[in-house]
Amino acid sequence: MSTITVAAVQTSPVFGHVEANLAQALALVPAGCDLAVLPELFATGYQFRDRDEVASFAEDLAPGAARGPVLGALAGHAARTGTTLVAGLVERDGARLFNSAVLVRPDGSHGTYRKAHLFLDEKLLFDAGDLPFPVFAACGTTVGLMICFDWVFPESARSLALGGAKVIAHPCNLVLPWCQEAMVTRCLENAVHAVTANRVGSERRTGSKLVFSGGSQVVAPRGERLARLPATGTGAAVARIDPGAPGTQLTARNDVLADRRPELYRG
């Protein structure tokens, strides 16, 4: 498998300024990048007041549906640049509203993931994801999707690894302090690369102020951080990776996936 260039794009959106947020984020995607991951809800902002406000930004992601402004902008950028994009947005499916991520290829095709593990007030605003953790063929490799708080559940990354993912694309709006460190372990225990794209800045549209922690990063299967951004400021953490290396063989006699003993595990 050939090497590819990946980027975790770190943005600072202003709530509700979709057009400006899209322009800012896409301008940060490095030229010549094979795969770029943008944050969760990167074009709308995060702290919605109620479900009606969520619905006002929602897009139908079903195949054949008219593209909304976010999916349309992502597809246009992918087509112009040849970069596969992963990004978070609000999805509408009938009366249901999902905190979703899309993988958009340069040929215009896209795949969708709906966030399984909702964080804090998201439980009041979104419906819980009802689709399995997906793995998509893209950029000459296999890319699995998870969103933000999915990191705290080891089953999320493990499901993607068992599904054949070599790279985990991880759009985030992180406010808790532990994820960036935990993703080192997720990569080590699953022999995958991970591209975690977080935002910076803050929002106070409801009772509590949220401060986002930045630290977007690319982590290798043995836990090395190949690129990382600071807690403030926008930009892109860029790394050249070989998605097939080093593989799941940890020692001459140990394989992190083949040595599993599921018959002994609970849950």
List the helices and strands and how they pair.
Layout: E1 4-10, H1 18-27, E2 35-37, H2 51-56, H3 69-81, E3 84-93, E4 96-104, E5 110-114, H4 122-125, E6 135-138, E7 141-145, H5 154-162, E8 167-171, H6 179-190, E9 193-197, E10 202-203, E11 210-211, E12 217-219, E13 225-228, E14 235-241, E15 249-251, E16 254-255
Helix pairs in contact: 1-3, 5-6
Helix amount, in percent? 10-25%
Count of helical stretches: 6
CATH class: Alpha Beta
The strand order across the widest sheet is 5-4-3-2-1-14
Structural class: alpha/beta
Report mean pLDDT, rounded to a whole number: 97
Radius of gyration: 17 Å
User: Under the CATH scheme, which architecture would be assigned?
Assistant: 4-Layer Sandwich
CATH superfamily: Carbon-nitrogen hydrolase
General form: globular
Could you name the CATH topology?
Nitrilase/N-carbamoyl-D-aminoacid amidohydrolase
Strand percentage lies at: 25-35%
| Overall number of strands | 16
- Main pleated-sheet profile: 6 strands, mixed
The low-pLDDT segments are none
Separation of the first and last Cα atoms: 35 Å
Order of helices and strands: EHEHHEEEHEEHEHEEEEEEEE
Number of separate structural domains:
1
Brief synopsis:
The protein contains six helices and 16 strands.
Plain-language structure description:
It is globular and about 55 Å long. The longest helix has 13 residues, at 69-81. 49% of the residues are buried. It has six helices and 16 strands. The strands form four sheets. It has a six-stranded mixed beta sheet with strand order 5-4-3-2-1-14. The protein has a six-stranded mixed beta sheet with strand order 6-7-8-9-12-13, with helices on one face. The chain has helices at residues 18-27, 51-56, 69-81, 122-125, 154-162, 179-190; strands at 4-10, 35-37, 84-93, 96-104, 110-114, 135-138, 141-145, 167-171, 193-197, 202-203, 210-211, 217-219, 225-228, 235-241, 249-251, 254-255. It has 267 residues and is α/β, with parallel strands linked by helices. A hairpin with a 5-residue loop joins strand 4 and strand 5. The chain has one domain: Nitrilase/N-carbamoyl-D-aminoacid amidohydrolase (4-Layer Sandwich).
